[in-house]
Write a structure and sequence with these properties.
single chain, seven-stranded parallel β-sheet, DNA-binding
Length: about 750
DNA sequence: GATCAGGAGATTTTT
DNA sequence: TCTCCTGATC
């Protein structure tokens, strides 16, 4: 695992006694039995409470393995494990720390047979899910444009977050989209089932099902996990709540820690009710509120409080701190995204020179992963060390997915998606039609395509085999037989080689090395990724080959963050606001503080989502200990309108806490924008000046007709059909359109 | 029936 | 910028 930056108050590491805890923290630590809810505001010593609580439980004779600690991310789980060991000693390594999905995986591995599954299965991630949705739609003879497969995937995931089965979902489905989704969902589950595969939502759902339906399993887990601890409880979804409830049903020793102000995952099904209604769901629960912030300066905290106070709904609380006022928050106005990166780097240099701030204590945060690009390019060019958290999407690289598809097709011959992904890579003359007839044949025989091709190859090897009825053309049959031969070879290798070496063998045996060599754009990079994958798999070489393979595949599915190649202690950290939750840094740069980016444009028409953006801004601000900088660009290439305006969140911060580090001189071509510190709302036109059907002239595009238009917060946008240039979306302030009639 | 080329569309946040 | 999809070609 990559070395992560500090979590909450790593700085004051201490002995397991309750000395040095404030009264609220102590209350939380000393409460041992029964349900407990800890409202832990940002920087209030949450991690400290958790680790001390664990220490105290162990001091009271609870065995480490009787404690189950659940987090939301692998990052958080690793941090928590480390902190517990730091405090309690190695003996505490036995505490069961893991993500929801990791914990459920263990239960499935052990007890999946109780509900009719095998203990080896494939885990389908979001990309696989999408393919499975398309597969389901095609099974139903439904054109892919009937409904958006992405939307259906998300809808299915939301349903699973609520533990709704296809049947339950269908019962309450309303309207065309939901009713269509209902039938796809039904079929989708069959696709997964026959592939012996589960998606993320299934993992929770099946674990709950096991706990509910198997008395043996239920008794075993109740006996095993006597104390349950859930971190970031505000981000749990309904299914996860049921999971916790089932586990805690025997004894009620469940401690949840969270902060409704930091709830930022409702788009993933997080249900704020879980934390707000905890006292109803677990009667006799004690509630502790941590409101003293140890992390940030007064001015940073004031900004945070101001931003979060504009929420329409939240549990009342006010963070306070004893720390000094600190510096004002620095504002950086940039021309565009490249300039933004430059300017941020300028400030970083100044900080290093004037205040000896170490780069490892600096974080650059952004709303979307794509924003990291400008920073990366600059930093690479200048040799500035940085580390990217998450995001790299290593496991979404084509070559990585290809190799993994081979491994999964070997580990689980029934895994249809993996099989079909690798079936024609490299090209073997197996096209869509061949695969389709193979699937049909599979349905008739009850065998999976992966099993059938192996059988074909066996038949071919046995000269006196009885000629069975094979519904395939000669060419297709030959190609599939050859594929079966490769698969059988891989089967053998998988039983002999540790998984790290297996990857190398797979690449050679299958001819995938040629695919990599002949890659049109970046063969070296693709090779590097495959090598890196093999290196990651090497961790499992100590296991029996088959077992190591299976474990590696589970990890690959559940770990989204990759080890960065080298540990760079002197590197600037770059990460999204979402990924920053739970971390803290001496200096934080909140970049891209622009309307339509942060708050994100997709949140603009939904008040609930807008509130979530605000909480996300709050999370960003409260990551900073000593210094906070916020930057925005006046132009940003890419999508949407190129002209940008400062984020409303900037306007919410009292001006006495803000100071410009850098402002642009007003230049020709730059639309005027009032300084953020003095700004209320930007002036927006109230009605359209160009009507539909109006003829206009543009300096570059020539003459055209206005097709549609709308008034936005800051400007008027029109869509114009130009005679030469086609359809264009234009911002009226920028485009200098001339009305012609 | 497979492959190729070109175009279109889509890009939030993550286990 | 990149991936997916479609339609045309071999």
């Amino acid at each position: 695992m990559q070395r992560q930056p500090q979590t909450d108050e790593r700085s004051d590491r201490d002995d397991p006694s309750t000395d040095g805890l404030n009264p609220q923290q102590r209350t939380a630590v000393e409460h041992l039995v029964g349900p407990l809810l800890v409202f832990a505001g940002a920087g209030t010593g949450k991690t400290r409470v958790i680790t001390h609580r664990v220490a105290r439980l162990i001091a009271h004779g609870v065995a480490p393995w009787q404690i189950l600690a659940v987090t939301f991310t692998n990052k958080a789980a690793n941090e928590m494990r480390e902190r517990i060991i730091d405090l309690v000693g190695l003996a505490a390594g036995g505490v069961n720390v893991g993500t929801f999905h990791g914990q459920c995986l263990r239960i499935l591995r052990r007890d999946f047979h109780r509900i009719g599954w095998e203990s080896d299965f494939s885990i389908y991630d979001a990309t696989d899910q999408l393919r499975a949705v398309k597969q389901a739609m095609s099974d139903l003879d439904m054109p892919l444009n009937t409904v958006s497969p992405q939307a259906v995937r998300n809808e299915i995931s939301r349903a699973k977050d609520e533990l709704a089965t296809p049947h339950e979902y269908a019962e309450r489905a309303e309207g065309f989209f939901q009713e269509t989704t209902a039938s796809i969902y039904h079929r989708y589950q069959r696709v997964l089932r026959s592939a012996q595969a589960v998606d993320f939502g299934d993992m929770i759902a099946y674990a709950v099902q096991i706990l509910r339906e198997s008395p043996e399993a239920r008794t075993a887990y109740h006996g095993r996990f006597r104390f349950i601890l859930v971190d970031e409880y505000q981000d749990t979804n309904r299914a996860q709540y049921y999971f916790v409830r089932e586990l805690a049903a025997g004894h009620g020793n469940v401690c949840v820690v969270g902060d409704d102000d930091q709830s930022i995952y409702s788009w993933r099904g997080a249900d704020i009710r879980n934390i707000l209604e905890f006292e109803d769901q677990f009667p006799a629960a004690s509630v502790v509120r941590l409101e003293r912030n140890y992390r940030s300066t007064k001015r940073i905290l004031a900004a945070a409080n101001e931003v979060i106070s504009k929420l329409a709904t939240r549990a009342p609380k006010t963070l306070w701190t004893d720390r000094a006022d600190g510096d004002a928050l620095g504002l950086v106005e940039a021309f565009d995204e490249d300039d933004e990166a430059q300017q941020v780097l300028e400030v970083v240099r100044k900080l290093s020179a004037d205040h000896q701030v170490a780069r490892r204590d600096i974080a650059i945060m952004y709303r979307t992963n794509a924003q990291s690009r400008a920073f990366e390019e600059l930093f690479v060019r200048l040799g500035v060390p940085y580390q990217l958290v998450g995001a790299t999407e290593f496991y979404n690289r084509k070559e990585v997915r290809d190799v993994l598809a081979y491994l999964r097709a070997v580990a689980n011959p029934r895994d249809l998606l993996s099989f079909e992904r690798m079936a024609n890579v490299p090209r073997r003359g197996i096209g869509a039609t061949t695969l389709k007839s193979l699937r049909t044949w599979a349905e008739q025989t009850g065998l999976a395509p992966g099993e059938l091709v192996r059988w074909l190859s066996q038949q071919a090897d046995a000269p006196d085999a009885v000629e069975a009825d094979v519904p395939l053309g000669g060419r297709a049959r030959r190609a599939l037989t050859e594929l079966g031969r490769v698969m059988r070879k891989l089967d053998t290798l998988a039983s002999e080689l540790p998984v790290g070496s297996l990857i190398n063998a797979v690449v050679q045996e299958t001819g995938y090395d040629d695919v990599l060599d002949n890659d049109p754009d970046r063969p070296e990079e693709r090779w590097e990724n495959v090598v890196e994958l093999a290196a990651a798999a090497g961790k499992y070489d100590e296991f029996e080959p088959r077992e190591g393979l299976q474990r590696f595949l589970y990890e690959a599915a559940l770990v989204s963050e990759v080890d960065n190649l080298a540990e760079q202690s002197e590197a600037i950290t770059m990460l999204t606001y979402h990924a920053a939750k739970g971390l803290e840094f001496g200096v934080v740069f909140m970049t891209g503080m622009e309307e339509e980016l942060f708050p994100h444009i997709r949140s603009h028409d939904d008040p609930d989502q807008m509130e979530e953006e605000r909480r996300l801004a709050y999370v960003g601000i409260t990551r900073a200990r000593d210094r906070l900088f916020m930057s925005y660009a006046r132009f940003r290439s890419g999508w949407g309108t190129p002209v940008r305006f400062p984020s409303r969140f900037l306007g919410d911060i009292p001006r006495e806490h803000l100071v410009y580090e850098r402002r642009l001189d007003e230049q020709p071509g730059l639309p005027p924008v009032a300084p953020v510190t003095a700004q209320a709302e930007p002036q927006a036109p109230t009605e359209r000046t160009f009507r539909d059907g109006q003829k206009v002239r543009h300096r570059v595009f020539g003459e055209g007709l206005v097709v549609s238009g709308k008034v936005t917060r800051f400007d008027e946008e029109v869509t114009v059909m130009f005679e030469g240039a086609g359809l264009k979306h234009l911002a009226v302030n920028m485009a200098n359109l001339e009305a012609l009639n």
